[in-house]
TrEMBL record:
Keyword RNA-binding set for record: no
GO terms of molecular function: ATP binding
Keywords: ATP-binding, Cell membrane, Ion transport, Iron, Iron transport, Membrane, Nucleotide-binding, Transport
Domain of life of the organism encoding this protein: Bacteria
Name this polypeptide is given: ABC transporter ATP-binding protein
Record-annotated ABC transporter domain positions: 5-237
Segments passing through the bilayer: none
Organism from which the protein derives: Arthrobacter silviterrae
Coiled-coil portions: none
Span within the parent record: 1 to 241 of 375
Keyword Cell membrane among UniProt keywords: yes
Length: 241
């Protein structure tokens, strides 16, 4: 599937929230590009990712992938993989089978899926961890397993919600390099939430800057710094991290 992602007029409210969590959000990203979603906590970034993935049904608006309307398309049929802030692994499967699962649901034979999974395990620097129980992993290790599982699904769209925030700086750099390598190999369209502006500049070409359920500005990383479109954008992109 062509991985161009277009979000049109997306709105979402939850019972009990006085203002919409997403307020008429429009965003279009090219196939194979990497866009960082930045902005204050509570701005709606995670909700947008969840709406794109199909985990959240919007009140209004639509999500198109490669021009195809995703309304009514189940999350697992959207050609997407998502890594949430806190990894969700299957506790009853070992590390390797957690990753191989991404292949078997696509109809890949189990043995092939396991070989594939071992390769992704190496990529996230967890070689030798295949037989471990996921409940025995550290937070950072579990997150890397979740990343490997997302990659093993060969998604055309990869949705990452602060995937590296639990990792120490060294591992984080290694994951940035991994992401670059992955882009060369598989070229998925990436939407990545981060609260770290320097990380956004390292991994992404473009930034979508969120505030209060809206996108204040969507532009290249360079233009976001050199030509902020508003005082608020300038304030959010400047100052201390
Ligand atoms: P961000 O990822 O930018 O920090 P979120 O998308 O997680 O923001 O959340 C935006 C707002 O929506 C927050 O105020 C949050 O409390 C609220 N919210 C998110 N999910 C739900 C939910 N399921 N029910 C009620 N409120 C929610
Ligand atoms: Mg969030």
């Amino acid at each position: 599937m062509n991985g161009t992602v277009t979000v049109e007029g997306l709105s979402k409210s939850f019972p009990g929230t006085s203002t919409p969590v997403l307020d008429d959000v429009n965003l279009s990203v090219e196939a194979g590009s990497c866009t960082a979603l930045l902005g204050p906590s509570g701005a709606g970034k995670s909700t947008l990712l969840r709406a794109v993935s199909g985990l959240e049904v919007p009140d209004a608006g639509r999500v198109l992938v490669g021009g195809q309307d995703m309304a009514g398309v189940k999350p697992e049929r959207r050609g997407m993989a998502m890594v949430q802030q806190r990894p969700l692994l299957f506790p009853h499967l070992n590390v390797l089978d957690n990753i191989a699962f991404a292949g078997t649901v696509r109809g890949v034979p189990k043995r092939t899926a396991r070989v594939d999974a071992a390769e992704f395990l190496d990529l996230v620097q967890l070689e030798g961890f295949g037989r471990r129980q996921v409940t025995a992993l550290s937070g950072g290790q579990a997150q890397r397993v979740a990343i490997a599982r997302a990659l093993a699904a060969r998604p055309s769209v990869l949705l990452l919600d602060e995937p590296f925030s639990a990792l120490d700086p060294e591992l984080r750099s290694a994951m940035h390099a991994l992401l670059a390598e992955l882009r060369r190999r598989l070229n998925p369209t990436i939407l990545m939430v981060t609260h770290d502006r320097s990380e956004a500049a390292v991994v992404a070409e473009n930034i979508a800057l969120f505030s209060g359920g809206r996108i204040l500005q969507h532009s290249s990383v360079e233009l976001m710094y050199s030509r902020p479109a508003s005082l608020e954008a300038s304030r959010l992109m400047g100052g201390a991290n």
